Amino acid sequence: MPNIFDAMQETLFNTVTSTMGYSATWAPDAGGAVITATVLYNGPTEKEKLLDANYTPDKLTMEYKVQDFEGLKQSIDSGKTENITIDPFGEFNIKSIQLKWDGKTVIANLVKITE
Q1: Residues with Cβ < 8 Å from 56, sequence gap 6 or more?
Q2: How far does Cα 42 stand from its chain's mean position?
Q3: How many Å apart are CA 11 and CA 101, to the nearest integer?
Q4: Cβ distance 35 to 26 under 8 Å?
Q5: Residues 32-61: pLDDT tens digits?
């Protein structure tokens, strides 16, 4: 049975992604329907460096709820190559995926695919 904090977490994540998120699409390498979700994209630039915060300009990530891209983590963990498109930033290869905190949120490490 979920507790009050689970409901608050869901509401807050939905609020943040609807306010600051970007549309992302994944076409599974194994085939099947294209999946679309709203993700939080982190692609830092020199202009975004603030105070003493961790800053790695070549570290691109996206954050999403685990159920948004069902099977993506398992595919990456099994060694398959998967790409995702984040509008308006372009296409990325997914290097790795980690579950964050309680396992409901996922962080994917990305590499920009140059055109």
Answers
A1: 44
A2: 9
A3: 17
A4: yes
A5: 999 999 999 998 766 555 555 665 556 899
> Residue 18: enclosing H or E segment and its boundaries?
helix 4-20
Gap between the Cα atoms of 56 and 51, Å rounded = 13
**Could you give the 3-state DSSP secondary structure of residue 77?**
helix
pTM higher than the cut 0.70 = yes
Q: How far apart are CA 97 and CA 52, in angstroms?
A: 26
Burial class (CB in 10 A: 0-12, 13-18, 19+), 64: buried
Burial of residue 25, with CB atoms counted within 10 A of its CB: 0-12 exposed, 13-18 middle, 19 or more buried? middle
> Measured on CA atoms in the order 65, 66, 69, 75, is the torsion positive or negative?
positive
Strand, helix or coil for residue 85: strand
The answer to whether the beta carbons of residues 64 and 84 sit under 8 Å apart is: no
Distance CA 40, CA 23 (A): 9
